[in-house]
Amino acid sequence: MNKIIFLSHFLDELTPGYGGVKSFEAKHVSEISQGATSNSQQWILSNHVGTHIDLPSHFDDLGKRLDQFEASDWIFTSPYLLSIEVRENQIITPGAEFDFIPQQCDILLIKTNFQQHRNTSLYWSNGPGLSPDLAKWLRKNRPALKVVGFDFISITSFPNRPLGRIAHKEFLGTEGENQPLRVIEDMKLDLLEAQPKKITVSPMLVRNADGAPVTVIAEL
Fold first, then answer.
1. What is the per-residue pLDDT for 175?
2. pLDDT band of 2, cuts 50, 70, 90
3. C-alpha 35: how far from its chain's center?
4. Which domains does the chain have, with CATH numbers?
5. Is residue 120 exposed (0-12), middle (13-18) or buried (19+ Cβ within 10 Å)?
6. Strand bridging mode 91-92 / 129-130
7. Residues near 70 by Cβ (< 8 Å), separated by ≥ 6?
8. Nearest-CA neighbor of 196 among 1, 9, 3?
9. Is residue 176 scored above 90 in pLDDT?
10. Does the structure show a pLDDT above 80 at 43?
């Protein structure tokens, strides 16, 4: 039997938010221990918190929203894991390592091990980011690719926010002949040591959403 693992972090009140902003809160609505008949919670959260997906409409009013995708758009049978070393604030550009991505790859997972800093302010304040040139290269040279995911908090490295806004538009934008790329930020990739066989991404289904928390499951 194939091993199945989560590639998403559980949400809790320690979940890091971009810019250090608190992005998740759980409130107890009823508690059995306090005499209620059931346990119930109310969650207050951003739609871009924890392991979540950025959709084209996040940076493009003409881009697709969550309810415009089919269920089949969230199953990936040709995943590729790319492991690279990064420094704080590094902007990842297209290098020779990206040439190894198979042409049939439909979801690219970039593992940097920056996840090890997730419980510190370093994770959001000085994390790496992705360059606009990488978006252009992937969209042009790997046309089967649909999703890019990684183990740091955002495409945008916090000290390089103007560049990050451009990079978001290059990944998600609908202009040009090559399809936009959906982006999964803040993934949990520490247990992924080999190429996965299949990836399933399950977003929280909210109509008209430009992004949403996702549960990502890998079959090894």
1. 79
2. confident
3. 40
4. 4-219 (3.50.30.50)
5. exposed
6. parallel
7. none
8. 3
9. no
10. yes
pLDDT tier at 136 (50, 70, 90 boundaries)?
A: very high
Q: Phi/psi class of residue 89: alpha, beta or left (left: φ > 0; alpha: ψ in -120 to 50)? A: left
Give the integer Cα–Cα distance in Å for 131 and 63: 20
Q: How many Cα atoms within 13 Å fall on the side-chain side of residue 63?
A: 25
Picking from 16, 13, 56, the residue whose alpha carbon sits closest to that of residue 175 is 56
Does an H or E element contain 141, and which?
A: helix 132-141
Burial class (CB in 10 A: 0-12, 13-18, 19+), 79: buried
- Listing DSSP states for 171-186 in one string gives HH---SSSPP-EEEES
The mean pLDDT value of the chain amounts to 96
In this structure, which amino acid lies at residue 21?
V
d(CA 187, CA 215): 10
Tell me the pLDDT tens digit for each residue of 62-96: 999 999 999 999 999 999 999 999 999 999 999 99
Tokens 């759980």 belong to residue: 26
By the 8 A CB rule, do 9 and 184 touch? no
> Is 84:112 a contact under the CB 8 Å cutoff?
yes
d(CA 134, CA 92) in angstroms, rounded, equals 7
Q: How far apart are CA 214 and CA 204, in angstroms?
A: 6
Confidence of residue 156 (pLDDT cuts 50, 70, 90): very high
Q: Which residue, among 203, 204, 147, has the nearest Cα to 172 in the 3D structure?
A: 147
> Is the pLDDT assigned to residue 170 strictly greater than 80?
yes
